[in-house]
Structure formats: structure tokens, C-alpha cells
Amino acid sequence: MGYDVDFLPVGDGEKGGDAIAVRWGNLNGNRTEQKVMVIDGGTKDSGNALVKHIKEYYKTDFVDYVFCTHPDADHASGLTVVLEELKVGILCMHRPWEHAADIKNLFQNGKITATSLRENLRKALENAHELESIATKKGIKIFEPFSDSVTNSNSPLTILGPSEEFYQLMLANFRETPKPKDNVNILGRSAILTAVREAIRWIGETWGVETLADPEEFETSAENNSSVILLLQVDGNKLLFTGDAGVESLDAAINKAITLGIDLTGISFIQIPHHGSKHNVSPSLLDKLVGPKLTNDISNKTAFVSVPLKGDPKHPSRKVTNAFKRRGAKVIATKESTKHHFKDAPDRGWVKAEPLPFYDQVAD
């Protein structure tokens, strides 16, 4: 069996997102011998591009699985186009409003009811709610992907995160929810990140000197940390998709994999989370997730990162891409064009993508 993994570019300036198409099975055979999956859809424009891409290269108008990793617009918006324009088997997404009764007691305002919270979440998270509405209208089955969900043990897809309990904790800290109680508030334990522009300070790195540091606890947002973390296993090859997950969520996913007897350091493909942000990974996490640092630049796996055309040096952080390279990953960035990772797939005649270099100057 083979696979295609396609990361489509999202955005045309400094803001990007994720739009991913995946196919696996006998790719030289009939459609019945293959599965097709979409993971996030980026913007409406990239949603249209996904539809065109799947029809042109996967030769189908049916998608078996659509995953919305989390409700941010740069991941969810384009999926509305996918659901409207293609036939879809299962929509895998979290439905925050369905957890209102479970989390209503986690807020400082004791007068909040499950009904009011449910309606507020539906209105605030409009991209996710629109996905649910389209799926309901078209009779598409909706499945909430949690690591403790009951799934088919023979499926090549494994949900490694988040657990439902972890998700509900993150949900209580979403921007759209009321102020949580002190013992629930994760944002109070770290500095709130701002988008203030500062002059870039460059510092030096060598292969043996890594400046990537451990981020503060829960430094990434609750929305990002609620991302679905998905493992695809095809013919002994492990492919890991991480959305915008942060250190806490990724660490839990690693522990889940261990309980399942899965060695993630043996992955052949990994998505660098959150467009290569330095706030989402740490050296110790990458040692467990990608593998130990190597003594020289030898690639034994591939890492893709979705980044906007003008994202450098923030997206991807050069500290992060250097860290992945030290651990044996060839790093490919989307920027202005679709990037293709494949095995035993029909030749498209595409030009081989140029991996990112090892940088001796990184933004502090």
C-alpha cells in the first residue's frame, strides 16, 4: 500500500493556516481500494483549492474522513467548502456546545446554565457550528475525536489526543467562554502572548548548540491545545498530524501512544505543529516525539510545516526547524506552493521540493 500527503498553501501574506489532503491504499488501483481524508481546510480559498486538488489528483469527489482539528478560522473555514462541494463519509470534529453541561460549573459565575453556555458557544464558534449545520443538512455522520473514544482497532487511524477530560479543561479556557475558576484557569499560569511587533534579535546556532527553550506552562492557547492529534499507519509507516497542539497536548499524546505500544520516534512523517511556532515544542518533547539529536545532518524522516508566504522568521521559527533537523527530519515548508510527500503513488511529474537549510542565525 502507498500514500499521498499534500499540504496546500494557505494565505498570501503573513497569515496562514492548514489545508491537508491525504490518500492511502492501492493508489494504482480502483477508488474502492483507497481512502481519502482531509485534515483542516484553511480559508475559503484554500477550501476551493482542496476540492480541485482532490478531484484532479485523487480522481474522486468522495472523501471518507474530514477532520477539523480545532475551531480556529484558519483551519475550519475552508472545510465548509469541502462539505458543500464534495461527498463526505464522516466529519470528525469537536462540538463544544455539546459539553456545556459538563463544564458549566467550571466558571466563576455560578449562574451560568448549560443552555445559555451552549447557545453562546454556537454563536461564538461560528465556523465550527456552520460545519455541524452543513453536515446535518447533508446527512453526514459526525464523530467527536477523542483519544479515549471507542474506535475500530483494525483502523489505520489512531486518535492520540486530546482526551475528553483534557479537551473540556481547554474548552473552559477558550476565549469565547466565561472566566474560569482559579483552579481551572490555565492562562493565569503563564504570560498572555501578544502580537506586538518588536525588532528581531538574531543569535547564533550550531549543530551542537540548540537555543530552543522550554515554553512557559500552557503558553499556547487553549484553542490550539485542543487540537486533534492523529496518527496514520500505512504498511509499517507512521504519519503524525498535530494541528496547532502545544507541549501539554503533545506530551499527553506521546503517553497515549506508549500505552498503545506505539513508538513515535519511529515515525516517517510528522507535521510540525502550529506553523513552526517556538511556543508549541521543547527540546525534551522533541526527543520523545521525533527522536534523539543526531551527530550530523542525516535525514531519516520528513517534516512538513504550513507557513504563510511572508511568515519568516516567526513561522516557521528557525529554532524549531533546526531542532527538527537535528533529530533527523528533512523539513519542507509550504509557503507559496503545494508540497507532496508520498510512497508507492502515481508520479505527477512534480519538481522535488527543496528542504529548508540548517540556519546558523535564528531569531531569539
Task: Outline the structure in words.
The protein has 364 residues and is of the alpha/beta class. It has one domain: Ribonuclease Z/Hydroxyacylglutathione hydrolase-like (Metallo-beta-lactamase, Chain A). The protein is built from 11 helices and 15 strands. It has helices at 44-57, 73-76, 79-85, 100-103, 114-124, 126-138, 164-171, 222-225, 247-259, 283-289, 318-326; strands spanning 2-7, 19-25, 34-41, 62-67, 87-92, 141-143, 157-161, 202-204, 229-234, 237-241, 269-271, 301-305, 329-333, 339-343, 361-363. The strands form 3 sheets. A 7-stranded mixed beta sheet has the order 6-5-4-3-2-1-14. Strands 7-9-10-11-12-13 form a 6-stranded mixed beta sheet. The protein has a two-stranded antiparallel sheet with strand order 8-15. β10 (237-241), α9 and β11 form a beta-alpha-beta unit. The chain is globular. Residues 189-196 have low confidence and may be disordered.
